[in-house]
Amino acid sequence: MQNFVLHNPTIVIFGAETVEQIGKETAQLGKKALLVYGKKSIRKYGLYDLVKKSLTDQGMEVLDHGGVQSNPVLSHVRNGITAAKENNIDVIVAVGGGSVIDSAKAIRAGAVVEHDVWQFFKGKKSIKSTLPLTCVLTLAAAGSEMNGGMVITNEETQEKFGTGNKYLNPNVSILDPTITYSVPADYTAYGAVDAIAHILEFYFTTADPSTPVQDRFMEGLVINIMESCGRALKNPCDYQGRADLMWCATLALNGWTAAGLGMVGFPMHMIEHSLSALYNVPHGAGLSVVMPGWMRYQANQHPDKFAQFGERVFGLKGSKMEVAQQGINMLESWFSSVKSPTRLAELSISPHDIPAIANNALSLAKVWRLKEYNQETIEEILKGCI
Amino acid sequence: MQNFVLHNPTIVIFGAETVEQIGKETAQLGKKALLVYGKKSIRKYGLYDLVKKSLTDQGMEVLDHGGVQSNPVLSHVRNGITAAKENNIDVIVAVGGGSVIDSAKAIRAGAVVEHDVWQFFKGKKSIKSTLPLTCVLTLAAAGSEMNGGMVITNEETQEKFGTGNKYLNPNVSILDPTITYSVPADYTAYGAVDAIAHILEFYFTTADPSTPVQDRFMEGLVINIMESCGRALKNPCDYQGRADLMWCATLALNGWTAAGLGMVGFPMHMIEHSLSALYNVPHGAGLSVVMPGWMRYQANQHPDKFAQFGERVFGLKGSKMEVAQQGINMLESWFSSVKSPTRLAELSISPHDIPAIANNALSLAKVWRLKEYNQETIEEILKGCI
Known about the structure:
The structure is a homodimer.
Chain A lengths: L3 E11 L7 H6 L4 E6 L3 H4 L2 H10 L4 E5 L8 H13 L4 E6 L1 H13 L7 H4 L11 E5 L11 E6 L4 E6 L7 E4 L9 H21 L6 H23 L4 H13 L15 H13 L3 H19 L1 H12 L5 H18 L16 H14 L7 H9 L3
Parallel strand pairs in A: 1-8, 2-3, 2-4, 4-5, 5-8
Antiparallel strand pairs in A: 6-7
Helix pairs in contact in A: 4-5, 7-8, 7-9, 7-11, 8-9, 8-12, 10-11, 10-14, 11-12, 11-13, 11-15, 12-13, 14-15
């Protein structure tokens, strides 16, 4: 186990019929709220009205800042910061998934400084304080609701950058599984794939060979994400399935599994990012294509951890290399079973594009300090995704 | 999964050579520290000097309050509160295991109120603020370093009462596994047993049949506590063994596994408490006697969860009742293998004493609201420990 510092001060309020608590929790942090949300869905199912009433019932003033898109953009964040400053906003409320919460985090950081918020992403300025943030989560996927990370795309420069900071952890996040009853099957599956990817990036890239309790946690999470996603797809209103999926997705990236792993990388996200950037495929759909290819490439060289994965997650027995490969096959089959694509062709991407995709990914490899990846290795991984 | 609120703001600094950070961390919280510790061991291995130097190097004034005993007592807590008040102490530093940290928690709560601290334990007053608390942990066992619970014995009234509150979570806890190299074999094992007991109380007493991710976490913890304790006993300076054991013991009772379980009970602790109270046996030693007996009693009535335990923790296969019983046998064998007793006779307790022990435990059953336990059921469980 590597040395670590763990601090996750977010208060999680989890369960059915907890959304009504957003007003009371937020009113303890400020009087004038900026309500950040996405496009249609929160209005469609009455969630918008519920949150707004809960806030105004506490005597709060609420200013709307809707319209966050997936792969959230800097211009919208900047507009939010301007609105927050002009209206003396003293607390941010995010109602949505990872894109909305990430936008709200960028607004909370940018609203308390004079300089442009993008300087935080470029590493030119450090976040030293933020406006308070409360969240109502609507999608089990990204994990932003209980961590201090955020990813924003600068449309002008075509940069999609992320940064993390202890001041970005939401003060309070409300996780009500019943809100996700209306998430369609494809996005339920993509969310599950995203959460599995977060876990497996850590699991397979830690350089520490002695992370036994973290391994058990991560294996348990993968098993449960598959099981609970299956329940949610079979019956979208299966409370226990939605609840387990929601909590597992949060746990996948809240720092608990990573504590003690030391340095980890995000190579599968790096390659997927190029698919999203070049072909605008959903993040989870891109990940389920990249993951088996990346895993096979790695397992050929270092089968041990992959064998452990096959053995513990899928109960396989046999030689190390057999179990390693069979475990990857079974994960891939599971992706197919939830109708998340596993081949480039399913995303309508031609093998001829592989050099261009690899080249795009390479620029991120440099930013993310994934030194062992070059044009050739990324192409080889992508060839395994044909 | 049941609704829950989770909030654990403790900053954990984990790893080798982290103790030196205690001064810097504490100096951010106050200028005048009360240093709470136990008896000999922290002086013997140079830890006392290291902590004191780290604090004074930051310009802090430090007042000693040593002498905490295991099963920490109210009179010593009261003396600490008086010392804190008279000397305008503004931060508490605990260096020790669960007894020391619990005493420090009681002092931090009592030092900011006019009334007697025991009123918090009797439920007559609520904790609404505390002095800050930093900890250096010296024993992998109780889990107090990352939770808001404390247990203190009132020697005058013979009451051993516990209470919990969000203001009691340590601000910072330093967990350096190398400090535990000097913990003797018996207390290393008792600590592991205590941590396993914390997990299994939750695991077997939750009334919710749908806690799948929590189950995986708890099973993973039990597996790792057994493995890491084995490593630590084989080689007391095995860093990875000590590190894994230390972190697992913290995770066993920091709220993460319990989130979503709903109401749980502590029936094994209830019965063990009588053994400790009447015969002054070490807590872990008493637990390893009570646990198999309690588990067999429960498994006869509700084998399902015990079968899951045998299957997942020990890899057993067979009929539900067979796997349930065999799993308990294997846990009991493991207790024996680490030389923690599993029979009342090993504690020199006669079967004739069972009615008196049960009667003592019964008084706690009322306080802890374990309504399903009466004189007869407790006697029956204890007969299984002969």
